Amino acid sequence: GLAERTWRTIIRMARAYITEKQLGREFWFYAVHHAALMLNQIPGRLKRRLTTPFELVHGVKPDSKTWFIFGSIGYFGVDKDGNVARATLEDQTLDGIAVGRDDASNTIVFYNPLTKQYYSPPIFKLDEDRLPVTNFPRNIKYSGGLTCGLFRNRTDPSPEPFPPGTRVTLASPADDGEVRGTVVNVPLVTTEVFTSAVNSPSTLECSAGYTIELDNGSRREVSFEELVKPPKTPSVSLDTAALEGLPYFLHPGSKVTMDHDGTFHKGYIEHSSEGFRFVVYRHPRSKTVDFAVPLPKLKQSWTTLVGDDVLIPGHGTVSTFLRPASNNGPSAKHVSAKNLLSPCPPSLIKALHPSNPDRQVWLDSYHEEKGGLEQHEVFERISKKQYLALRRQGLIPDALPSMCVLVIKKDKEGKPDRAKSRIVVLGNYEDRVYDKSKRFAPVLKYSSLRLLVSKAIGDKRVLQQGDCKNAFCQATLPDDERMAIRPPHGDPAFAKGEYWLLKKTLYGLRRSPRHWYDMFTAILRDMGLTPSRHDPCLYSGQLSRPGLPLSETRRHVYVGIYVDDFVFYSTDPAEEQLFRDEMAKRITVDFMGEVDYFLGTAFTWKHHTDGNLSVHLCQSAFTEFTAHRFGVDKMNQTPNMTPYRSGKPIDSIPNADPDDPDLKRRTKVYQSIVGSINWLATCTRPDIAPALTFLSTYIQAPHEQHYKAAIYALRYLYSTAEYGISFHSSASTTVQAFNHFPHHHDKEAYTDAVPPSPSECHQLTAFSDACWGGQFGNAVEDGTPLEMFKFRSLSGFLICRCGGPIAWKAVRQKRTAL
Q1: Residue 576: which of 471, 461, 467 has the closest Cα?
Q2: pLDDT tens, 180-227?
C-alpha cells in the first residue's frame, strides 16, 4: 500500500492545484508532474536521519528558491515569433501559465494558451495571486475540478458519469420541490447496464445505488435512473407587462450585487405575486434563502437604484473590506471604470487583446463612442474605390490616420469613475493651413466661474450643470473642408479597404474647436442670450421663444460654457426648465443637476435652516494627486503650518551652480511642482499666491534649496488639502479681518482700521497692499551681493463678493525700492 498511498497523495495534490487556479483538464498531466516533484522534496526520516527523496537521488539538498505555485501567471520577454523577429513597435513581452521546470536550464516553463507554445525564459516575473482565467478568459475553461473515475471493464472503459464529489439535483420525497446533494459513494455497475440505462431506463437492474449526502446533512440512496433523468423544474410564466420597462440585467433570475446596510451582497432578482425582491442564498449552490430585500416600485425606481450604485449588475469583485466612503460600483449613465483590474492601456489593440482582463469594459467603451458617432451621422463608410474617385476629382485631400484615445476619468475624490474612449483624427498630418483666428476657440475664465458662483449664491440659487454629448461631432463640416480618414487601428469591425468620409467635425481636426464654439454660441444667441463684453463664454439674458414675449417680470438666465461643459442658473425655476427644454431641442445634452465637480473643482453646497445658502470650492483631489506624484504624501501633515520655511526666505537662497550635474533633472521636476502649485493658486488657493511668485522667479535654474522650498509649499497644500474658497448668501459684502479696533479717541490716527458701516458696503470690495523692499530679511549677511530684482516690493490685490474672493494677484513691482 505504500505506492498506492503515495499515488493517492499525488492525485490529491494535483487536484488541489487544478482547483485553486481553476484550470481545465488539459493541465492534469503538468499538475501531477509538479505534485510528484514537490512530494520528492518533502523531508522524512531514514534511519534516524532527516532527508528527502530528492537528496537521496541527487546528493544535494533541495533549493526552496526554485519552488513556485503551479498555475501562476508569469510575464517574460519574447522578441521572436518562431524564426521571425518582432518589430520595434510590437510587444516585446508575453504572459503565460507556469506549468513546470525546464530540465536543461532549470527555469520555469510557461504555456501560452493563445500561441499554444511553451517558453523557457531566462528572466521572468511571477504573479502568484492572479488566476489564469483573468488573463485568458476565452482559453481557460474551469470544469469544476477533476475526479478519478471508476472504469467498468478493461475491454471497453467507460468512466463513471457521477463520480464522488459531483453535485446533483434530486426530487424531494414529499414532492414539494427539489433538493441538492453531493455524491459520496458510487456502485459498481457494468458497462452493459450503464448503456441500457441510458437508452431505456426501465431496464436498469442494480441492487446497489448511489449514496447522496444532502445539503441538510442526511444521506439518501438513489438509483442510477433518478440521476440520469433528473426532475424537471416547473416553468414559471411571467407576465410580460410585469417586465416592461426593466433592463435585461434586472429580470428575474439575474445576478445582482446590492448595497444593503453598508455592505455589498451578491444575490438574485426574484418576482412573485407580491412583487420584486432581492434574495441572497446561504451558498451559491443552495436553495435556502439567507435573507431577502423587497424592491417596491422597481420599474419606477430602478434608474435611481442603479445610478446611486445600490443595485450593481452582475457579481463583480466589489470589496467590502476597507470600503471607501462612496460606493465603488458601476454607474448606469456611462461605462464605469470603478472595477477595472489593470491600469489604462496605451492603445486600443492592447485594450481589446484577449489577455486583457478588462477587455469587455474597454470594448463597451469603444462601442459607446463609435455608436455615438454613428448616431450623429458623423461619417459615412466608403470603399477604397469610392475614396480614390473622390481623390481624382479633387474633392478631398489624402486620408488622415485616426486613433482611439483611452482615458480613465476620475471623480471629485480622485478615484476612477469612467472608462472613456475617444476616436480622434491625427490633425498634425492635415495639409490645410488656417490662421489662428480661424482655429482659436475661447473657454470660460476661472474668474468668471467664481463670479457666476458668487452671483448664484447671492440669489440663493444652486448652480446647475450640463454636458453636451459628442460635442465636436455635432457641427456640420463645410464642403471645402471635407475629409476622409482611416478607421482607428484595432477597430474590431474594421473591413479591408474601408474609409470614413466625414460629414461632421471630429476630434483632432484643426478647426473642430472653432466649429463647435460657433455652433454652441449661435444656439445661445438664438435663444436670446448675449455674451459678456469681458468674457465671450459668459452669457446672460431672457430666453426668447415663439409665443413667449419678453417681459420685465421674467428672470434672466446666466450661462458659462467651457468647451462642451456648461453651468447655468436663474432665480426662477421655470426659466431654468425652459432653458433645458430649448437646449434639448437643438442639441444632445445631458443635464446632471447641481454642480458637483466642474473644471477639476469639487463643489459642496449647503442649505442652512435660516434659508441661506453657501458653497465651498476646493481641489483636494488634485492636491492629493500632486502630493503623491512628488512623494509628499509620505510626509507628516501639519495643518497649522505656513508655505514658508522659518528663517529661510526664498530670496535669500543663492543661485544654482551652472556646473551642477543634477541641475537639469532638478529643473524639470521643479518646473512641474511650480506648475501644479500655479494651477491651485489660480483657481481656489489665493493663500499660496505670494509664495508662488517667489518660487516662479527661479524656475529656469533652481538651487537645491529652492527645490526644498517648493516641496515645503506643496506639503503645506497637502496638509490643507480641504482648504478652498467659500461663498455665503448672508455674508457681509466686505471682508473684515482685523485683530482689534482702536479706541474712539484714536480714530483720527487709525481711520483705515474702522470697518465700514452697512450703508457703505458694496457688492464688490477690493483690497490692495504692498510690502516695502526685499523679502530676504536678516537671512543674508551684510555685504553679500544680491540681484536688484530681489529688492523689489511685492504688490497684491483681492476682490471679494458674498464673503469670498473672486479675483486676486500677488506680483513683484517693476521698480526696485531701496
Answers
A1: 461
A2: 788 777 775 444 544 554 454 444 444 457 888 887 888 888 887 677
